[in-house]
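Researcher: Here's the sequence for the chain we discussed earlier.
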Amino acid sequence: MENPGKAMIAAALLVGLAGPAVAQNRTTIPDFSYSEGVKRGDCKIAFRSRDDKTMVDFGLGIMDSIFSVEVLRNRWDIVDDKDTNITDIPLTLTFQNGQTTSSEFGGYKNGFYQGVWAMWHGKDSDPAQSQRGLERLMEASSATVSFDNKIIAEVNLGPSGFAANKLLDCAIAERKKRENPSN
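Model: Thanks. This is the structure I predict for it:
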């Protein structure tokens, strides 16, 4: 298919997704806690890291299908003395099956929450990078997050494909809402 958005929608339909994502639902079971919703034009699903302090927030752009990750804490010295204007530090996700994916863009984030951000934008060197990041997430049940050559979080993602399916389901539902605002 020529349109990556259509390809992602078709892939999502093939895996038999459940109903649309519900904003700000939170589910917690031992070693598995997540919340989901829509924020700044992205579908989001955030998981509490195994350290019980860090949140790993996966995102998928509703209209542009850009895959993103933020790893945040309320107060985190990882940002101390770092330049928050740098945007070329890759973040790497390593999944339980040994597969990895690294972002093309990433940097430090400072504010109320501090941490790091990354985008699998894929404009220049790899136009399908965002789709490949999401494909890796489709097979994932846990991940280790590395940034600037350091492991910064380990997270349980639930059943294999849970996080990716939630993101795709949300994006499909939100696109439909925007195409048919009266519904």
